[in-house]
Hints:
The chain is built from five helices and nine strands. The strands form two sheets. The protein has a six-stranded mixed beta sheet with strand order 4-3-2-5-6-7. Strands 1-9-8 form a three-stranded antiparallel beta sheet. This is Hypoxanthine phosphoribosyltransferase.
Amino acid sequence: MENLRKDIEKVLFSHEEIVIASKRIAKEIEEDYKDKEKEPVLLCTLKGALPFMAELMKHIDIHVVTDFIDVASYHGGTESTGSIILRKDVTMDLENRDVIVVEDIVDTGRTLNHLLNYLRERNVKSVACASLVDKPEARLVDVQAEYVGIESPNEFLVGFGLDYEEKYRNLPYIGVLKPEIYS
Length: 183
């Protein structure tokens, strides 16, 4: 990963820290859903949450099912446009299911708020969010993830699913992208 490392100003969260956060969230989910009638649906938001979803699932010791949804609010660039586009919808019937939205990051909160409302309209039994990264300083909408791995300062992050123009998702850590890359 030395080729890509030259574009990173600093590493904020190592792979080891990400794994520890994922294990902690997995145990919290186990505890909260162990007595539920049906397995919770882990709903991965594509593409960014895919590495976190894969890491998280490995540590959950109850039955879960998975599905995917693709929503976009960045459309390139470094800031959310505020316009949410549904690119791929879920494939299963979510009515009367416990759904856990698996997010890479909650920053402005617009995308998560939109997703939570969208899922409630589909008559889910319950809906929660597990986010690897929370960036509360960037919040524009009053929304919170129930399960948070790591709290981050308000910097432009890449790695472990987080991208800039579809690049850097494959980094095994989360870092701050050098401003000259996106300026």
